[in-house]
Write a structure and sequence with these properties.
Two copies of one chain form a homodimer. Chain A is mainly alpha-helical. The first copy, chain A, has two domains: 57 residues, Arc Repressor Mutant, subunit A (Orthogonal Bundle), CATH 1.10.10.60; 157 residues, Tetracycline Repressor, domain 2 (Orthogonal Bundle), CATH 1.10.357.10. Chain A contains ten helices and no strands. Chain A is elongated. The relative contact order of chain A is 0.11. Chains A and B meet through helix 7, helix 9 and helix 10 of A and helix 7, helix 9 and helix 10 of B. The first copy, chain A, binds a DNA duplex (18 and 18 nucleotides) through helix 3.
DNA sequence: GTCTATAATCTGATAGAC
DNA sequence: GTCTATCAGATTATAGAC
């Protein structure tokens, strides 16, 4: 009986923690990532500032929870990219590898532009003084590994493939967010960028229609 | 006689303004762009906070002066890229266009990684609430036009050339600054990236050694 | 669990003496 | 031209009542 009570308490606590993190995202989107205050944050969830400290030991712990949640969302979101590629695969004149590369590019771009503040926290790392905990940072490493696996499954062995494509994709995203928010000036270039990348990394995947790039499905 | 006195005063004033802006850069590099305070800034130049307001009407005016100075430095720095290309041109197996594209990439990369805080202010625009004045923003526009002229001089007419290359170059730079500061993990990829870009935008410039790409020199 | 009260400190900006 | 003094807040975080 005592165990059940403890579990219910823990559950309730986790719910409130999640509520606080959600409110922190809202505030960050409204006023900027660095402009979150414990007062405002508390007010958003119907508390005063000191009560927030019952759930997070410091402001940095809240940023860390945001960082962690952001990468969890990223991992989940990118895992679905293969499905996109399957859908796009039916198009004429496009190899399975190109369809997959394009789908990947659009997936990544959509995730980033959907929430520029999240993009800033996860990929730009311009929040002064903040360093993610080892536990949260491990998620960022796993995201990178997931990208490497994706390339391996496509048959791309070039060791620079991941670094070159993250650079190009984050670059397109950054430019879109900073210089044409809400527009499509750089989004338009995604298909072309994906093709350029594939031509550089594995040109045979651009012509050979029977290459086993969908091994994972 | 009166005129001379006025000129000396104006000159002295401009010197102090420059001193304050230099101190602001120092503070930004040490504690982050958003963490500049008027008190600290004054202390750096041997003043109290209120005296700084004699030279700049607000904190935003100081950010604007930094933004402006950063783009002035950028314009000057990139104008010298043609000289780099001339030096690199002697290399075997490289067309003048490729030498030029590579030199441009390295120039841009060096400018950005030399001062990540400046890069953040000029290209990332993540300083919450800050908008450059029309006068300062005009410099940013001119920088972009200078890039467009560079491509035109190389004979590249593709209208997406500039957007695609700024995306790739800022991407490589961002990744280097955020994920491997002081290292060369993305710097190593610059030559390859420049070649990939040129192959996409004007493949003939990669093979035709007699193309008039050095028209400007 | 949440509160009030408060410590201790920081912030941008202004008034007015010298 | 620079200062002191100060306004009118803001900030993170803690102590202790309820």
């Amino acid at each position: 009986m005592t165990e059940t009570v403890v579990d219910r308490r823990t559950l309730r606590r986790e719910e409130t923690r999640a509520e606080i993190v959600a409110a922190a995202w809202d505030l960050a989107r409204e006023h900027g990532l660095a402009a979150i205050s414990m007062r405002d944050l508390g007010a958003r969830v119907g508390m005063r500032a000191p009560s927030v400290y019952t759930y997070f030991e410091s402001k940095d712990a809240i940023y860390d929870a945001m960082f962690r949640q952001g990468y969890e969302q990223f991992l989940e979101w990118m895992a679905d990219a293969a499905a996109d590629a399957r859908d796009a695969d039916a198009r004429v004149g496009v190899t399975p590898a190109l369809a997959r590369a394009r789908a990947h590019a659009h997936r990544f771009f959509a995730f980033c532009t959907a929430d520029p503040v999240r993009y800033q926290l996860l990929f730009l790392r311009t929040l002064p003084g903040f360093e993610p905990s080892a536990q949260s940072y491990a998620l960022a490493v796993r995201a990178l590994e997931q990208g490497a696996d994706e390339y391996a499954a496509m048959g791309i062995t070039d060791p620079d493939a991941l670094d070159l494509s993250t650079a190009l994709l984050t670059g397109l995203t950054s430019q879109q967010i900073a210089n044409d928010p809400g527009g499509d000036r750089w989004e338009r270039l995604l298909d072309r960028a994906a093709e350029m990348l594939l031509r550089e990394l594995a040109p045979d995947l651009l012509t050979d229609r029977d290459h086993p790039t969908m091994r994972r499905t």
